[in-house]
């Protein structure tokens, strides 16, 4: 399955009791449709994601980044400490394609723009 969405928080690296590292992050996917009355309905779906291949990817997975993910979805249900029933979707990610849009992407873009302006000012003509 493929999904495309924005990270809702910076990725975190966690170590399991078997000393394996996993990158955890959350992605929001926005969708909209018109109901029978013609009203536009906005809908957001959240996925808790895990990536087991390399922890280094956590450095570039920052809040707001647009990512395209490949992997498989599982659903889970649990009862909270308050006795309320909860449910969530987990996305076991096997491939990540970063499309930008996060804090680090904005920083890199600003740095490139500054360097370009300096070069243009130094031209003799």
Tell me about this structure.
With 125 residues, the protein is of the alpha+beta class. Helix content is 15%, strand content 53%. The protein is built from one helix and six strands, in the order ββββββα. It has a five-stranded mixed β-barrel with strand order 1-3-4-6-5. A hairpin with a 5-residue loop joins β5 and β6. The chain starts with a strand and ends with a helix. Keywords: DNA-binding. It comes from Flavobacterium zubiriense. One of its GO terms (molecular function) is DNA binding. InterPro entries: NA-bd_OB-fold, Primosome_PriB/ssb, ssDNA-bd.
Compile the SSE list and pairings.
Layout: E1 2-7, E2 12-15, E3 21-34, E4 40-51, E5 66-79, E6 85-100, H1 103-121
Parallel strand pairs: 4-6
Antiparallel strand pairs: 1-3, 1-5, 2-3, 3-4, 5-6
User: Span from first to last CA?
Assistant: 54 Å
Order of helices and strands: EEEEEEH
Low-confidence stretches: 105-120
Structural class: alpha+beta
**Count of extended strands:** 6
- The strand order across the widest sheet is 1-3-4-6-5
Short description:
The chain is an alpha+beta fold. It has one helix and six strands; from the N terminus they run ββββββα. The chain is globular, with a radius of gyration of 20 Å.
